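New to this. Please check this fold:
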Amino acid sequence: MNAELVIALSAVLVSVISLIVGVRTLSTQRRHNKLSLRPIAHFSKGDYDDLIFISLKNNGVGPLIIDEFSVVNREGVFKRLIDSFGCLAVEVVWDGFADNIDGRVLAPGDEFVLVKVGFDSSQRDLRALIRSALATTVLLLAYRSIYNEMQPPITFRLEWFARH
C-alpha cells in the first residue's frame, strides 16, 4: 500500500465517523427540544369564605394546546364549567369564567380562569350551593405539545368541595 491510498482511506473513515456523530447529535438535540418544550397542565382550586375559583394553568415550559376540555356531572357533559351549574349560574354574579377552551393555546406560566366568584357574608347559602354543585363535578382535559405529541389526559375530580 502506498501512502496516498492510506491517507485517502483515513480521510473517508474520518468523514464517515463525523457523519455518524453528527446524525446522533441531531437526533439527541431533537429529543431534548421535544422534552424541554413539554407543557404540564395543572388544575388549581380555591375555596375560601369570600372566594371560590377553579383555573387551568400551564406549569410547563412549552405551549399547551387544548384538544378537548369537558365537564361531567349528574346533569350531563358540558364544554364550559359555568354551564354545569344549570339554573344556579344565572343567580350568581361571576367575577370571571371561561368560554369553550377547545383548540386554545395556553402559554407557559399562563392560566385560564374556568370560574371565579366572590361572596360577602350574606351569601352563605349561595356559596354552599356552588360548593355542592362542584363536589360532584369532574374535569377532563386532553392536550398536546407544540410537536403534536399527545400528553397524558387529565381527570380532575372536584370532590374536595364536599368537605364542608
